From TrEMBL:
Organism: Arsenicitalea aurantiaca
GO MF annotations in UniProt: hydro-lyase activity; iron-sulfur cluster binding; metal ion binding
Keywords (A to Z) from UniProt: Iron, Iron-sulfur, Lyase, Metal-binding
PANTHER family linked: HYPOTHETICAL DIHYDROXY-ACID DEHYDRATASE (EUROFUNG)-RELATED (PTHR43183:SF1), HYPOTHETICAL DIHYDROXYACID DEHYDRATASE (EUROFUNG)-RELATED (PTHR43183)
Full protein name: Dihydroxy-acid dehydratase
Domain Dihydroxy-acid/6-phosphogluconate dehydratase N-terminal: 46-355
Pfam families: ILV_EDD_C, ILVD_EDD_N
Length: 579
Protein backbone atom coordinates (compact mmCIF):
# COMPACT_ATOMS: atom_id res chain seq x y z
CA UNK A 1 0.00 0.00 0.00
CA UNK A 2 2.80 2.41 0.87
CA UNK A 3 5.99 3.48 -0.85
CA UNK A 4 7.31 4.92 2.38
CA UNK A 5 9.38 3.08 4.95
CA UNK A 6 8.59 4.99 8.13
CA UNK A 7 11.36 3.51 10.26
CA UNK A 8 14.13 4.65 7.95
CA UNK A 9 12.67 8.08 7.27
CA UNK A 10 11.58 9.46 10.58
CA UNK A 11 12.58 13.01 9.71
CA UNK A 12 11.81 12.85 6.04
CA UNK A 13 8.94 14.98 4.86
CA UNK A 14 5.96 13.11 3.47
CA UNK A 15 6.11 15.33 0.38
CA UNK A 16 9.65 14.06 -0.32
CA UNK A 17 7.99 10.86 -1.56
CA UNK A 18 6.92 13.03 -4.47
CA UNK A 19 9.32 15.94 -4.84
CA UNK A 20 12.49 14.37 -3.41
CA UNK A 21 12.77 11.47 -5.89
CA UNK A 22 15.50 11.13 -8.51
CA UNK A 23 13.47 8.86 -10.80
CA UNK A 24 10.98 9.50 -13.57
CA UNK A 25 8.21 9.90 -10.99
CA UNK A 26 10.14 12.74 -9.32
CA UNK A 27 10.57 14.27 -12.75
CA UNK A 28 6.83 14.16 -13.32
CA UNK A 29 5.89 15.50 -9.89
CA UNK A 30 8.33 18.42 -10.14
CA UNK A 31 8.00 19.15 -13.82
CA UNK A 32 4.25 19.57 -13.76
CA UNK A 33 4.42 21.75 -10.65
CA UNK A 34 6.81 24.02 -12.53
CA UNK A 35 4.13 24.87 -15.05
CA UNK A 36 2.70 27.14 -12.36
CA UNK A 37 5.94 29.09 -12.19
CA UNK A 38 7.33 27.42 -9.07
CA UNK A 39 11.07 26.78 -9.00
CA UNK A 40 12.31 23.51 -7.51
CA UNK A 41 13.82 25.18 -4.45
CA UNK A 42 10.41 26.60 -3.55
CA UNK A 43 8.98 23.17 -2.81
CA UNK A 44 11.81 20.66 -2.56
CA UNK A 45 12.67 19.92 1.05
CA UNK A 46 10.07 22.42 2.29
CA UNK A 47 7.00 21.50 4.35
CA UNK A 48 4.20 21.48 1.80
CA UNK A 49 1.03 22.91 3.33
CA UNK A 50 -2.27 22.19 1.66
CA UNK A 51 -4.84 24.95 1.94
CA UNK A 52 -8.03 22.93 1.81
CA UNK A 53 -10.57 25.49 0.65
CA UNK A 54 -14.35 25.18 0.88
CA UNK A 55 -14.70 28.42 -1.09
CA UNK A 56 -17.65 28.54 -3.43
CA UNK A 57 -19.88 31.24 -4.84
CA UNK A 58 -22.73 28.84 -4.14
CA UNK A 59 -21.78 29.01 -0.46
CA UNK A 60 -22.15 32.75 0.15
CA UNK A 61 -20.77 32.42 3.68
CA UNK A 62 -17.50 31.13 2.21
CA UNK A 63 -17.33 33.56 -0.72
CA UNK A 64 -14.31 35.40 0.70
CA UNK A 65 -12.19 32.34 1.46
CA UNK A 66 -9.94 32.67 -1.58
CA UNK A 67 -8.89 36.08 -0.30
CA UNK A 68 -8.26 34.53 3.11
CA UNK A 69 -6.26 31.73 1.47
CA UNK A 70 -3.82 34.37 0.21
CA UNK A 71 -3.11 35.35 3.79
CA UNK A 72 -2.56 31.73 4.79
CA UNK A 73 -0.21 31.45 1.83
CA UNK A 74 1.85 34.42 3.02
CA UNK A 75 2.17 32.86 6.44
CA UNK A 76 3.34 29.56 5.00
CA UNK A 77 5.98 31.30 2.89
CA UNK A 78 7.06 33.46 5.84
CA UNK A 79 7.78 30.30 7.84
CA UNK A 80 9.73 28.62 5.03
CA UNK A 81 6.99 26.31 3.81
CA UNK A 82 5.34 25.86 0.44
CA UNK A 83 1.56 26.42 0.20
CA UNK A 84 -0.76 24.76 -2.29
CA UNK A 85 -4.42 25.71 -2.29
CA UNK A 86 -6.97 23.17 -3.47
CA UNK A 87 -10.76 23.12 -3.66
CA UNK A 88 -13.09 20.59 -2.11
CA UNK A 89 -16.84 20.37 -2.43
CA UNK A 90 -18.52 23.14 -0.51
CA UNK A 91 -21.76 23.07 1.47
CA UNK A 92 -23.87 26.22 1.63
CA UNK A 93 -26.77 26.17 4.07
CA UNK A 94 -28.70 28.90 2.36
CA UNK A 95 -28.88 27.31 -1.10
CA UNK A 96 -28.47 23.54 -0.86
CA UNK A 97 -31.46 21.23 -0.92
CA UNK A 98 -32.72 19.05 0.59
CA UNK A 99 -30.17 19.74 3.36
CA UNK A 100 -26.40 20.15 3.55
CA UNK A 101 -26.29 17.46 6.22
CA UNK A 102 -26.99 14.91 3.49
CA UNK A 103 -23.58 15.81 2.07
CA UNK A 104 -21.43 16.37 5.18
CA UNK A 105 -20.02 12.86 5.06
CA UNK A 106 -19.56 13.06 1.28
CA UNK A 107 -17.40 16.16 1.67
CA UNK A 108 -15.45 14.48 4.44
CA UNK A 109 -14.56 11.75 1.92
CA UNK A 110 -13.51 14.41 -0.60
CA UNK A 111 -11.30 16.10 2.00
CA UNK A 112 -9.77 12.81 3.16
CA UNK A 113 -8.98 11.64 -0.37
CA UNK A 114 -7.63 15.03 -1.47
CA UNK A 115 -5.24 15.22 1.46
CA UNK A 116 -3.96 11.64 1.46
CA UNK A 117 -3.41 11.29 -2.26
CA UNK A 118 -1.33 14.44 -2.60
CA UNK A 119 2.18 15.58 -1.64
CA UNK A 120 1.17 17.28 1.60
CA UNK A 121 2.92 17.50 4.95
CA UNK A 122 0.40 19.67 6.74
CA UNK A 123 -3.02 21.18 6.15
CA UNK A 124 -4.89 24.41 6.79
CA UNK A 125 -8.65 23.89 6.60
CA UNK A 126 -10.51 26.97 5.35
CA UNK A 127 -14.12 26.74 6.38
CA UNK A 128 -17.13 28.84 7.28
CA UNK A 129 -20.71 27.83 6.61
CA UNK A 130 -22.12 25.26 9.06
CA UNK A 131 -21.22 21.86 7.60
CA UNK A 132 -17.95 22.91 6.02
CA UNK A 133 -16.34 22.86 9.47
CA UNK A 134 -17.25 19.33 10.61
CA UNK A 135 -16.92 17.88 7.10
CA UNK A 136 -13.37 19.22 6.76
CA UNK A 137 -12.37 18.23 10.28
CA UNK A 138 -13.75 14.71 9.86
CA UNK A 139 -11.97 14.10 6.56
CA UNK A 140 -8.69 15.56 7.78
CA UNK A 141 -8.91 13.55 11.02
CA UNK A 142 -9.08 10.30 9.07
CA UNK A 143 -5.66 11.22 7.59
CA UNK A 144 -4.25 12.82 10.76
CA UNK A 145 -1.56 15.13 9.37
CA UNK A 146 -0.55 18.27 11.28
CA UNK A 147 -3.71 20.33 10.72
CA UNK A 148 -5.03 23.73 11.72
CA UNK A 149 -8.45 25.19 11.03
CA UNK A 150 -9.27 28.75 9.99
CA UNK A 151 -12.86 29.94 9.87
CA UNK A 152 -14.06 32.67 7.56
CA UNK A 153 -15.65 34.55 10.44
CA UNK A 154 -19.12 35.95 10.99
CA UNK A 155 -20.81 38.70 8.98
CA UNK A 156 -21.10 42.18 10.47
CA UNK A 157 -24.21 42.67 12.60
CA UNK A 158 -27.44 42.98 10.66
CA UNK A 159 -29.11 46.37 11.12
CA UNK A 160 -32.64 47.21 10.06
CA UNK A 161 -34.88 50.09 11.04
CA UNK A 162 -32.59 51.15 13.85
CA UNK A 163 -32.18 47.77 15.48
CA UNK A 164 -29.85 44.79 15.28
CA UNK A 165 -31.13 41.78 13.39
CA UNK A 166 -29.52 38.38 13.42
CA UNK A 167 -29.04 35.76 10.69
CA UNK A 168 -31.62 33.03 10.82
CA UNK A 169 -33.06 33.98 14.19
CA UNK A 170 -34.78 37.11 12.86
CA UNK A 171 -35.84 35.36 9.67
CA UNK A 172 -37.84 33.01 11.89
CA UNK A 173 -39.23 35.96 13.90
CA UNK A 174 -40.14 37.88 10.75
CA UNK A 175 -41.79 34.82 9.22
CA UNK A 176 -43.95 34.40 12.30
CA UNK A 177 -44.73 38.15 12.32
CA UNK A 178 -45.90 37.98 8.70
CA UNK A 179 -48.03 34.91 9.50
CA UNK A 180 -49.55 36.72 12.47
CA UNK A 181 -50.28 39.78 10.29
CA UNK A 182 -47.90 42.04 12.23
CA UNK A 183 -45.47 42.63 9.38
CA UNK A 184 -46.09 43.37 5.69
CA UNK A 185 -44.43 41.35 2.93
CA UNK A 186 -42.76 44.56 1.66
CA UNK A 187 -41.19 45.15 5.07
CA UNK A 188 -40.16 41.50 5.20
CA UNK A 189 -38.29 41.80 1.90
CA UNK A 190 -36.65 45.10 2.83
CA UNK A 191 -34.87 43.32 5.69
CA UNK A 192 -33.01 40.93 3.37
CA UNK A 193 -30.13 43.20 2.40
CA UNK A 194 -29.98 44.64 5.91
CA UNK A 195 -29.42 41.21 7.40
CA UNK A 196 -26.51 40.03 5.26
CA UNK A 197 -24.41 43.16 4.84
CA UNK A 198 -20.87 41.80 4.60
CA UNK A 199 -18.87 38.72 3.75
CA UNK A 200 -18.97 35.97 6.35
CA UNK A 201 -21.18 33.37 7.96
CA UNK A 202 -24.32 33.79 10.08
CA UNK A 203 -23.56 36.27 12.86
CA UNK A 204 -25.81 34.71 15.47
CA UNK A 205 -24.52 31.90 17.70
CA UNK A 206 -25.85 29.46 15.11
CA UNK A 207 -24.06 26.38 13.93
CA UNK A 208 -21.31 28.16 11.98
CA UNK A 209 -20.33 30.40 14.90
CA UNK A 210 -20.76 27.52 17.32
CA UNK A 211 -18.42 25.26 15.37
CA UNK A 212 -15.89 28.07 14.74
CA UNK A 213 -15.92 28.83 18.46
CA UNK A 214 -15.73 25.19 19.57
CA UNK A 215 -12.63 24.83 17.41
CA UNK A 216 -10.95 27.17 19.88
CA UNK A 217 -12.13 24.98 22.75
CA UNK A 218 -10.91 21.90 20.90
CA UNK A 219 -7.56 23.61 20.41
CA UNK A 220 -7.62 22.97 16.65
CA UNK A 221 -7.89 26.68 15.73
CA UNK A 222 -6.01 29.76 16.90
CA UNK A 223 -7.44 31.94 19.68
CA UNK A 224 -10.09 34.41 18.41
CA UNK A 225 -11.01 32.12 15.50
CA UNK A 226 -14.65 32.05 16.57
CA UNK A 227 -15.59 35.71 16.67
CA UNK A 228 -13.33 38.05 14.66
CA UNK A 229 -15.69 39.48 12.01
CA UNK A 230 -15.05 38.14 8.52
CA UNK A 231 -14.10 41.58 7.21
CA UNK A 232 -11.95 42.67 10.16
CA UNK A 233 -8.26 42.85 9.19
CA UNK A 234 -7.49 40.75 12.26
CA UNK A 235 -9.17 37.81 10.51
CA UNK A 236 -6.54 38.09 7.77
CA UNK A 237 -3.79 38.29 10.37
CA UNK A 238 -5.19 35.13 11.99
CA UNK A 239 -5.06 33.36 8.62
CA UNK A 240 -1.45 34.51 8.17
CA UNK A 241 -0.55 33.20 11.61
CA UNK A 242 -2.28 29.87 10.87
CA UNK A 243 -0.14 29.44 7.76
CA UNK A 244 2.95 30.09 9.82
CA UNK A 245 1.87 27.69 12.56
CA UNK A 246 1.06 24.94 10.06
CA UNK A 247 4.71 24.89 9.00
CA UNK A 248 5.86 24.81 12.61
CA UNK A 249 3.41 21.99 13.36
CA UNK A 250 4.95 19.89 10.60
CA UNK A 251 8.40 20.49 12.08
CA UNK A 252 7.10 19.69 15.56
CA UNK A 253 5.22 16.62 14.24
CA UNK A 254 2.08 17.78 15.99
CA UNK A 255 -0.69 15.67 14.52
CA UNK A 256 -4.40 16.34 14.69
CA UNK A 257 -4.82 13.44 17.08
CA UNK A 258 -2.35 15.03 19.50
CA UNK A 259 -4.75 17.96 19.82
CA UNK A 260 -8.16 16.31 19.50
CA UNK A 261 -8.10 14.18 22.64
CA UNK A 262 -10.95 13.27 24.97
CA UNK A 263 -9.95 16.23 27.15
CA UNK A 264 -10.32 18.54 24.14
CA UNK A 265 -13.81 17.22 23.36
CA UNK A 266 -14.94 17.65 26.96
CA UNK A 267 -13.57 21.21 26.96
CA UNK A 268 -15.54 21.88 23.77
CA UNK A 269 -18.76 20.56 25.35
CA UNK A 270 -18.28 22.87 28.34
CA UNK A 271 -17.60 25.80 26.06
CA UNK A 272 -20.72 24.97 24.03
CA UNK A 273 -22.78 25.12 27.20
CA UNK A 274 -21.33 28.49 28.19
CA UNK A 275 -22.02 29.83 24.70
CA UNK A 276 -25.56 28.46 24.45
CA UNK A 277 -24.24 26.85 21.26
CA UNK A 278 -26.06 24.93 18.57
CA UNK A 279 -27.55 21.47 19.03
CA UNK A 280 -25.84 20.58 15.76
CA UNK A 281 -22.56 20.52 17.68
CA UNK A 282 -23.76 17.20 19.09
CA UNK A 283 -23.79 15.28 15.81
CA UNK A 284 -20.64 17.00 14.56
CA UNK A 285 -18.45 16.45 17.61
CA UNK A 286 -19.61 12.84 17.96
CA UNK A 287 -18.81 12.11 14.32
CA UNK A 288 -15.41 13.80 14.61
CA UNK A 289 -14.53 11.82 17.73
CA UNK A 290 -15.55 8.68 15.85
CA UNK A 291 -12.99 9.41 13.15
CA UNK A 292 -10.24 9.71 15.76
CA UNK A 293 -11.25 6.74 17.88
CA UNK A 294 -11.70 9.07 20.88
CA UNK A 295 -13.95 7.69 23.58
CA UNK A 296 -16.67 10.34 23.63
CA UNK A 297 -20.41 9.69 23.75
CA UNK A 298 -23.79 11.42 23.72
CA UNK A 299 -23.92 11.05 27.49
CA UNK A 300 -20.63 12.95 27.82
CA UNK A 301 -22.44 15.87 26.23
CA UNK A 302 -24.96 15.97 29.00
CA UNK A 303 -22.59 15.12 31.85
CA UNK A 304 -19.78 17.51 30.93
CA UNK A 305 -22.03 20.44 30.10
CA UNK A 306 -24.60 19.97 32.83
CA UNK A 307 -23.07 22.21 35.49
CA UNK A 308 -22.10 24.97 33.05
CA UNK A 309 -24.62 27.80 32.72
CA UNK A 310 -25.07 29.91 29.61
CA UNK A 311 -22.86 33.01 29.90
CA UNK A 312 -23.19 34.44 26.40
CA UNK A 313 -26.11 36.78 25.73
CA UNK A 314 -26.16 35.95 22.03
CA UNK A 315 -28.97 35.16 19.61
CA UNK A 316 -30.78 32.81 19.47
CA UNK A 317 -30.62 32.38 23.29
CA UNK A 318 -30.06 36.10 23.91
CA UNK A 319 -29.92 39.42 22.08
CA UNK A 320 -26.39 40.23 20.91
CA UNK A 321 -24.50 39.22 17.78
CA UNK A 322 -21.02 37.90 17.01
CA UNK A 323 -19.55 41.35 16.40
CA UNK A 324 -20.61 42.39 19.91
CA UNK A 325 -19.23 39.11 21.21
CA UNK A 326 -15.86 39.74 19.59
CA UNK A 327 -15.59 43.19 21.18
CA UNK A 328 -16.67 41.75 24.53
CA UNK A 329 -13.68 39.40 24.54
CA UNK A 330 -14.96 36.52 22.41
CA UNK A 331 -14.23 32.86 23.03
CA UNK A 332 -10.97 33.33 24.99
CA UNK A 333 -12.88 35.45 27.53
CA UNK A 334 -15.60 32.81 27.90
CA UNK A 335 -12.98 30.08 28.27
CA UNK A 336 -11.24 32.17 30.95
CA UNK A 337 -14.58 32.61 32.71
CA UNK A 338 -15.10 28.82 32.95
CA UNK A 339 -11.41 27.99 33.28
CA UNK A 340 -11.76 26.08 36.54
CA UNK A 341 -14.16 23.68 34.76
CA UNK A 342 -11.72 23.04 31.89
CA UNK A 343 -8.75 20.76 31.41
CA UNK A 344 -6.22 23.53 30.94
CA UNK A 345 -3.42 21.08 30.16
CA UNK A 346 -5.01 20.22 26.79
CA UNK A 347 -2.67 20.83 23.85
CA UNK A 348 -3.57 23.34 21.15
CA UNK A 349 -2.32 24.08 17.64
CA UNK A 350 -0.47 27.07 19.06
CA UNK A 351 1.98 24.61 20.58
CA UNK A 352 0.90 25.86 23.99
CA UNK A 353 -1.69 24.50 26.41
CA UNK A 354 -5.26 25.79 26.49
CA UNK A 355 -4.48 27.33 29.87
CA UNK A 356 -1.57 29.32 28.43
CA UNK A 357 -3.68 30.40 25.45
CA UNK A 358 -6.49 31.88 27.53
CA UNK A 359 -4.18 33.21 30.25
CA UNK A 360 -4.74 36.94 29.84
CA UNK A 361 -8.24 36.90 28.40
CA UNK A 362 -10.70 39.39 29.90
CA UNK A 363 -14.38 40.22 29.53
CA UNK A 364 -14.95 43.78 28.26
CA UNK A 365 -18.75 43.88 28.32
CA UNK A 366 -20.68 42.17 31.08
CA UNK A 367 -23.99 42.51 29.28
CA UNK A 368 -22.64 40.25 26.51
CA UNK A 369 -20.55 37.80 28.54
CA UNK A 370 -21.92 37.19 32.02
CA UNK A 371 -19.89 35.93 35.01
CA UNK A 372 -20.07 32.27 35.99
CA UNK A 373 -21.62 33.02 39.41
CA UNK A 374 -24.38 35.26 37.98
CA UNK A 375 -24.90 33.72 34.53
CA UNK A 376 -27.09 34.88 31.67
CA UNK A 377 -29.21 31.72 31.91
CA UNK A 378 -28.88 29.01 34.54
CA UNK A 379 -29.31 26.14 32.09
CA UNK A 380 -26.54 25.96 29.52
CA UNK A 381 -25.57 22.80 27.82
CA UNK A 382 -27.56 20.33 25.90
CA UNK A 383 -29.76 17.95 27.82
CA UNK A 384 -29.84 14.34 26.65
CA UNK A 385 -33.24 12.74 27.16
CA UNK A 386 -34.06 9.05 27.20
CA UNK A 387 -37.16 6.98 27.60
CA UNK A 388 -39.37 4.61 25.66
CA UNK A 389 -39.81 7.26 22.97
CA UNK A 390 -36.05 7.72 22.52
CA UNK A 391 -34.23 4.60 23.72
CA UNK A 392 -30.93 5.78 22.22
CA UNK A 393 -31.42 9.39 23.21
CA UNK A 394 -32.75 12.75 22.09
CA UNK A 395 -31.52 16.27 22.79
CA UNK A 396 -32.95 19.63 23.85
CA UNK A 397 -31.27 22.99 24.33
CA UNK A 398 -32.71 24.38 27.56
CA UNK A 399 -31.30 27.89 27.05
CA UNK A 400 -33.44 28.29 23.92
CA UNK A 401 -36.55 26.68 25.44
CA UNK A 402 -39.46 27.99 27.55
CA UNK A 403 -39.00 27.44 31.27
CA UNK A 404 -42.58 26.37 32.07
CA UNK A 405 -42.62 23.74 29.30
CA UNK A 406 -39.56 21.90 30.58
CA UNK A 407 -41.77 19.55 32.55
CA UNK A 408 -44.86 18.89 30.48
CA UNK A 409 -47.50 16.27 29.75
CA UNK A 410 -49.61 16.67 26.64
CA UNK A 411 -51.57 15.01 23.89
CA UNK A 412 -49.60 14.15 20.75
CA UNK A 413 -50.48 15.61 17.37
CA UNK A 414 -48.52 13.57 14.85
CA UNK A 415 -47.23 14.72 11.45
CA UNK A 416 -45.93 11.92 9.27
CA UNK A 417 -43.35 14.00 7.48
CA UNK A 418 -42.69 17.43 6.01
CA UNK A 419 -45.47 17.18 3.40
CA UNK A 420 -48.08 16.22 5.98
CA UNK A 421 -46.87 19.08 8.16
CA UNK A 422 -47.09 21.59 5.35
CA UNK A 423 -50.56 20.40 4.37
CA UNK A 424 -52.09 20.74 7.83
CA UNK A 425 -50.21 23.25 9.98
CA UNK A 426 -52.15 26.27 8.72
CA UNK A 427 -55.53 24.48 8.97
CA UNK A 428 -57.92 26.70 10.97
CA UNK A 429 -59.69 23.56 12.26
CA UNK A 430 -56.53 21.80 13.48
CA UNK A 431 -57.36 19.97 16.71
CA UNK A 432 -54.74 21.58 18.93
CA UNK A 433 -54.36 23.60 22.12
CA UNK A 434 -51.37 25.06 23.96
CA UNK A 435 -50.71 21.81 25.82
CA UNK A 436 -50.53 19.72 22.63
CA UNK A 437 -47.19 18.08 21.84
CA UNK A 438 -46.36 18.40 18.14
CA UNK A 439 -44.62 15.29 16.81
CA UNK A 440 -42.82 15.20 13.46
CA UNK A 441 -41.26 12.00 12.13
CA UNK A 442 -39.52 10.55 9.07
CA UNK A 443 -37.11 13.49 9.10
CA UNK A 444 -34.02 11.74 10.52
CA UNK A 445 -30.80 10.72 8.75
CA UNK A 446 -32.45 7.97 6.66
CA UNK A 447 -35.97 9.34 6.56
CA UNK A 448 -35.54 12.82 5.10
CA UNK A 449 -32.78 11.82 4.06
CA UNK A 450 -30.06 13.88 5.71
CA UNK A 451 -31.78 14.87 8.95
CA UNK A 452 -33.03 18.27 7.87
CA UNK A 453 -33.31 21.33 10.10
CA UNK A 454 -37.06 21.24 10.44
CA UNK A 455 -37.35 20.08 14.05
CA UNK A 456 -38.52 23.52 15.21
CA UNK A 457 -41.78 23.03 13.33
CA UNK A 458 -43.93 26.14 13.06
CA UNK A 459 -46.51 26.89 15.71
CA UNK A 460 -49.95 26.08 14.17
CA UNK A 461 -51.71 29.17 12.84
CA UNK A 462 -54.67 28.73 15.22
CA UNK A 463 -52.30 28.83 18.17
CA UNK A 464 -50.36 31.82 16.84
CA UNK A 465 -53.61 33.70 16.55
CA UNK A 466 -54.18 33.02 20.24
CA UNK A 467 -50.76 34.48 21.01
CA UNK A 468 -49.08 31.14 21.76
CA UNK A 469 -45.40 31.48 20.82
CA UNK A 470 -43.95 28.18 22.00
CA UNK A 471 -45.14 24.59 22.27
CA UNK A 472 -43.35 21.30 22.93
CA UNK A 473 -42.16 19.82 19.66
CA UNK A 474 -40.52 16.41 19.20
CA UNK A 475 -38.85 14.98 16.11
CA UNK A 476 -36.03 12.92 14.64
CA UNK A 477 -34.89 16.01 12.73
CA UNK A 478 -32.29 18.62 13.62
CA UNK A 479 -32.87 22.33 14.14
CA UNK A 480 -30.92 25.28 12.81
CA UNK A 481 -28.47 26.64 15.36
CA UNK A 482 -30.18 29.99 14.90
CA UNK A 483 -33.57 28.61 15.96
CA UNK A 484 -35.22 28.45 19.36
CA UNK A 485 -38.14 26.92 21.24
CA UNK A 486 -38.97 23.94 23.44
CA UNK A 487 -37.82 21.55 20.80
CA UNK A 488 -36.77 17.94 21.35
CA UNK A 489 -34.51 16.84 18.50
CA UNK A 490 -32.40 13.95 17.18
CA UNK A 491 -34.74 11.26 18.54
CA UNK A 492 -32.88 7.97 18.11
CA UNK A 493 -33.53 5.59 16.60
CA UNK A 494 -35.40 7.67 14.04
CA UNK A 495 -38.82 6.59 12.74
CA UNK A 496 -37.38 5.39 9.42
CA UNK A 497 -35.01 3.10 11.31
CA UNK A 498 -37.93 1.58 13.20
CA UNK A 499 -37.65 3.79 16.28
CA UNK A 500 -40.66 4.12 18.60
CA UNK A 501 -41.35 7.58 17.17
CA UNK A 502 -42.91 5.64 14.27
CA UNK A 503 -45.47 4.16 16.68
CA UNK A 504 -46.90 7.34 18.17
CA UNK A 505 -50.53 8.12 17.29
CA UNK A 506 -52.38 11.39 17.56
CA UNK A 507 -54.04 11.46 20.96
CA UNK A 508 -51.33 9.51 22.82
CA UNK A 509 -50.01 11.21 25.94
CA UNK A 510 -46.35 12.22 25.96
CA UNK A 511 -44.34 13.24 29.01
CA UNK A 512 -41.32 15.51 28.79
CA UNK A 513 -39.19 16.00 31.89
CA UNK A 514 -36.02 17.90 31.05
CA UNK A 515 -34.63 18.09 34.63
CA UNK A 516 -35.30 14.33 34.94
CA UNK A 517 -33.87 13.77 31.42
CA UNK A 518 -36.94 11.75 30.44
CA UNK A 519 -39.06 11.45 27.30
CA UNK A 520 -41.93 9.02 27.74
CA UNK A 521 -44.79 7.80 25.61
CA UNK A 522 -47.58 6.87 28.01
CA UNK A 523 -48.79 3.74 26.22
CA UNK A 524 -48.80 0.18 27.50
CA UNK A 525 -45.93 -1.96 26.30
CA UNK A 526 -48.23 -4.58 24.70
CA UNK A 527 -50.05 -1.89 22.74
CA UNK A 528 -46.71 -0.64 21.45
CA UNK A 529 -45.87 -4.19 20.38
CA UNK A 530 -49.20 -4.47 18.52
CA UNK A 531 -48.45 -1.24 16.69
CA UNK A 532 -44.93 -2.38 15.90
CA UNK A 533 -46.28 -5.57 14.32
CA UNK A 534 -48.46 -3.46 12.00
CA UNK A 535 -45.67 -1.04 11.08
CA UNK A 536 -44.75 -1.06 7.40
CA UNK A 537 -40.98 -1.05 6.86
CA UNK A 538 -39.46 2.19 5.60
CA UNK A 539 -38.60 2.14 1.90
CA UNK A 540 -36.24 4.81 0.64
CA UNK A 541 -37.24 6.31 -2.71
CA UNK A 542 -33.58 6.63 -3.67
CA UNK A 543 -32.42 3.76 -5.85
CA UNK A 544 -29.05 5.09 -6.97
CA UNK A 545 -26.24 7.52 -6.40
CA UNK A 546 -25.01 9.18 -3.26
CA UNK A 547 -28.47 9.20 -1.66
CA UNK A 548 -28.65 5.43 -1.92
CA UNK A 549 -25.19 4.93 -0.42
CA UNK A 550 -26.05 7.42 2.31
CA UNK A 551 -29.37 5.87 3.31
CA UNK A 552 -27.87 2.38 3.30
CA UNK A 553 -24.91 3.31 5.50
CA UNK A 554 -25.79 6.30 7.64
CA UNK A 555 -25.76 5.72 11.38
CA UNK A 556 -28.12 7.28 13.85
CA UNK A 557 -27.84 10.72 15.46
CA UNK A 558 -26.70 9.36 18.82
CA UNK A 559 -23.31 8.48 17.33
CA UNK A 560 -23.06 11.46 15.00
CA UNK A 561 -24.76 10.24 11.80
CA UNK A 562 -21.52 9.28 10.08
CA UNK A 563 -21.50 6.49 7.50
CA UNK A 564 -20.63 3.16 9.10
CA UNK A 565 -17.65 2.54 6.82
CA UNK A 566 -16.17 6.01 7.42
CA UNK A 567 -15.80 5.70 11.17
CA UNK A 568 -12.13 5.69 12.15
CA UNK A 569 -9.17 6.69 10.02
CA UNK A 570 -6.60 5.25 7.63
CA UNK A 571 -3.71 7.54 8.51
CA UNK A 572 -1.35 9.44 6.25
CA UNK A 573 0.22 6.53 4.36
CA UNK A 574 1.63 7.40 0.96
CA UNK A 575 -0.39 5.54 -1.66
CA UNK A 576 1.39 3.61 -4.42
CA UNK A 577 2.45 5.42 -7.57
CA UNK A 578 0.02 6.07 -10.37
CA UNK A 579 1.82 4.94 -13.52
FE1 LIG B 1 -23.88 29.86 6.12
FE2 LIG B 1 -25.55 30.32 8.22
S1 LIG B 1 -26.03 30.04 6.12
S2 LIG B 1 -23.41 30.07 8.20
MG1 LIG C 1 -27.35 27.02 10.30
Amino acid sequence: MSDRDDDDNKDKLRSAEWFGRQDSYGFIYRSWMKNQGHTADMFQGKPVIGICNTWSELTPCNGHLRMLADHVRRGVYAAGGFPLEFPVTSLGESNMRPTTMLFRNLVSMDVEASIRSNPLDGVVLLVGCDKTTPASLMGAASVDLPTILVSGGPMLSGRWKGRQIGSGTDVIRFKEAVRAGEMSVDEFMSAEAAMSRSAGSCMTMGTASTMASLCEGLGIALPENGAIPAVDARRQALAFEAGRRAVAMVREKQRMSDVLTRAAFLNAVRLNAALGGSTNAVVHLLALAGRLGVQFTLDDFDAAGRDIPCLANLMPSGKYLMEDFFHAGGVPAVLAEISDRLDLSATTVTGRTLGAVIGGAEVHDRDVIFPLDTPFKPAGGIAVLRGNLAPDGAVIKPSAATENLMVHRGRALVFDGPDDLKARIEDPDLDVDETTVLVLRNCGPKGYPGMAEIGNLPIPRVMLEKGVLDMVRISDARMSGTAYGTVVLHVAPEAAAGGPLALVETGDMIELDVPGRRLHLDIAEDELERRRARLAPFVSPYGRGWERLYVEHVQQADTGADLDFLVGGSGDYVPRVSH
